[in-house]
Amino acid sequence: AWALLADALVLRLAVVVATFDTPTTLDPADFSRNGWSFAQGHGVPPSNRAPAGGPSAFRPPAYPVFLGNVYAVVGREAPAIARLVQTVLGTLAVGLIGLIAARIWGRRVGMLALGIAAIAPPLVILSTALVSEALFVPVMLAAVLAALEARRSSRPLRWAIVTGVLLGVAELTRTNALVLLPALGLALWT
């Protein structure tokens, strides 16, 4: 399992290194601008989506705050560095996919899922792009795993709370995360 995770990380790092100087445009540029504003302590910056160009809640805050923390450490707006950091999130998503599959179908299927996720092109690209899904996917998968753990645990309330917190973070990352609420609620209830 560790070798597959290492391969997943190396593959993602290679993609970022190969595209290191790619200009940031459209949504990634907007996320980056928001992240830099958070890093400077200005909060949500003015937007062309709000009346009179004021701040807008169009972008949920979790991903720009994540970028802001990366930029605060680096000391400047650095989308390529943020993409390098995101390779860890992508590798975490791969591990979570393997764990979820193992919890549901057993170790062999978990290892197969881990191997497929490690090299799946959409997951590789997603975890190296400057978009909110790079944070949303591992948080959502962690919420699913926490719900599965609640079903197995002798202390399900703790895992239910973890599931709720992760679902909240997912919602603060992408507003469509609420579609997970009924499924995770059902998983916790049964």
Fold and architecture overview:
The protein is an all-alpha fold. Helix content is 73%, strand content 0%. The protein has 9 helices and no strands. The chain has helices spanning 2-18, 26-39, 62-74, 79-105, 107-119, 121-126, 133-152, 156-173, 180-189. Helix 1 (2-18) runs antiparallel to helix 4 (79-105), helix 2 (26-39) packs across helix 3 (62-74) and helix 3 (62-74) packs across helix 4. The model has no long low-confidence stretch (mean pLDDT 91).
How is the secondary structure organized here?
Blueprint: H1 2-18, H2 26-39, H3 62-74, H4 79-105, H5 107-119, H6 121-126, H7 133-152, H8 156-173, H9 180-189
Helix pairs in contact: 1-4, 1-5, 2-3, 3-4, 4-5, 4-7, 7-8, 7-9, 8-9
Q: In a few lines, what is going on in this structure?
A:
By secondary structure, the protein is mainly alpha-helical.
Residue ranges: pLDDT <50 for 5 or more in a row? none
How much of the residues is beta strand, in percent?
under 5%
Distance between the termini: 30 Å
Order of helices and strands: HHHHHHHHH
Would you tell me the overall average pLDDT? 91
Gyration radius from CA atoms, angstroms: 18 Å
Largest sheet: none
| Structural shape | globular
Beta-strand segment tally: 0
Index terms:
mainly alpha; globular; 190 residues; 9 helices
